[in-house]
Prior knowledge:
This protein has 9 helices and 11 strands. It folds into 2 domains: 21-89, Phosphorylase Kinase, domain 1 (2-Layer Sandwich); 103-311, Aminoglycoside 3'-phosphotransferase, Chain: A, domain 2, CATH 3.90.1200. The chain is α+β, with helices and mostly antiparallel strands. Strand 4 (73-79) and strand 5 (82-88) form a beta hairpin. Helix 3 crosses helix 8. It starts with 20 loop residues before the first strand and ends with a helix.
Amino acid sequence: MHDGGMTDDDHRWEPAGLAGLSNPRPLTGGVASPSVVRADWSGQDVVVKRTSRSELAVLQLFADLDEPMLPRLLASGVDDAGPWIVTVFHPGRPVDLMGELPAEAHRCMGRVHARFHCRATGITDDLDVVDRGFVHRALAGFGIEQLERARPVIGESLYDRGARLLAELAADEEFCTAVADFTPTLLHGDLYGSNVLQPTDQESSPLIIDWGAARIGPAMFDVAMTSSYDSAARRAHDDGWAEIAGSAPDPGENELAHAWSEVMIRAIFAGTVAVRSSVADGEQMIIGAETAVTGFRRLRGRRQTKATVESGS
């Protein structure tokens, strides 16, 4: 990252027809992008971003929510270059890439999940749904692509191990269709350290940023990004859910959904973690996915047996 001003060529971020923007400068402390800048607008310190239709749609959904940990949309639109948003700038630093998120961030996501879990179908046409097709594409497409990127650093042996796991999961119809058993809601979709800002002062709350991967799917997908099922983070999430719903989410469904999500996340992001963190962390993602597969199948088998016994068949 750098602190210098913008050059004449760095204007891909600039929305057409939005008057009053001044003093554009690169954001510091996160992932550098010429599509995101900090600027002054109407007397406010703001972030101007070229974004996806999914992030634009989600921030519009958040407009009426009283949630200080969610970005506040000041202006938005779509021009010839695509969607754009203007949000309030918050000083802070991202949580470490592989770090544990603050409990209040999980509690906030619990409230978000609870607000939208009964409204997930038809929220917006701009969000992908985590269904069988999505799962197969993530395993056979995205996951393999990320491993290919990491191949020069992880070596052939680890690459083969990860690719074999992805192929086996993509061919496992029971695994790919299991997501249909989980109640869908609005997901962040990429809830890890770099997308949560820690405030620079004691009074402010963390901020959950970068909603470009938002989609519709099981709530535990967001939790499993960084935390185990038997963790303070998941309990904080359930506390937030209960604030809105009046009671905690179904523990049986959520335990299985978390086990499934852990397999998915560790398998498809192993290559990404190897490149952005370390080879050792990437290897642990693959090992963790292999272990999680066994745990998911065991847990699913127990639930199926229980259901059979209770039905008397």
